[in-house]
Amino acid sequence: AQRVTQPEKLLSVFKGAPVELKCNYSYSGSPELFWYVQYSRQRLQLLLRHISRESIKGFTADLNKGETSFHLKKPFAQEEDSAMYYCALYSGGYQKVTFGTGTKLQVIP
Amino acid sequence: EPEVTQTPSHQVTQMGQEVILRCVPISNHLYFYWYRQILGQKVEFLVSFYNNEISEKSEIFDDQFSVERPDGSNFTLKIRSTKLEDSAMYFCASSDSRGQETQYFGPGTRLLVL
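Output (C-alpha cells, whole complex):
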C-alpha cells in the first residue's frame, strides 16, 4: 500500500531563509508526486507536480527515487508562504490521491 | 477560473441523523472524489466516482456512506446515520482525466455531529 510521510508538523523559518519541507513516500510502482498548499481559510490548491518539473512561487521539488523523497524547497521564504503544505502521491489505477499529514510552514517576519 | 463549489459550508447535526453534502464539480470534469479531514489529522480518501459508478472506495467508506450524481451538475455524499466520529471537514474534488492531471478541490464542508 502507498504511504506518504511528512515528518515535520511545524516548520518555522525567518523571512528570507531557505525552506525545505520533507516528504518521503512508499510505493512499489512508479509514483506521481504532488505538493498541495492550503492557505488560511482557503481550499487545497495544487502547488506543483513532479512530472511538470516546474517552479511555482519560487518552490521546487525533485523526485528522488533512490531515497523515495520529494522534498519541497524554496531558497528565500516569504511571509505569504505561511500555510499548510501537503505532499501527495497518485498511484494510478483508480485516480485516488494519498496525502501526507501535512506540514505547517510559519514564516517569521 | 472555474472552481469546485460545496454546500453547505458548515453543518451541525445530531448523532443518528442523515446528512447530505453537496458538491458542484467543474463542468467538463469526469472524475469526482470525496475526501475527509478529521481535525488535526491528514486528508483521507473516501471514494472516487466515474461514469455514474464508484471507481474505488476506502475502508472508511462503509455502508453508511453513499454517493450520487443526481443530475448533470451535482455530486452528493450522503451519510445515513451519522456518528460522532464522522465530524470532519469533507472535501469534494474533480478532475478531467486521470488523477495525475490534477484534482481540483472544493472549499470543504465542516460537519459537526453532536
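The CA atoms of residues 14 and 114 of chain B lie 5 Å apart.
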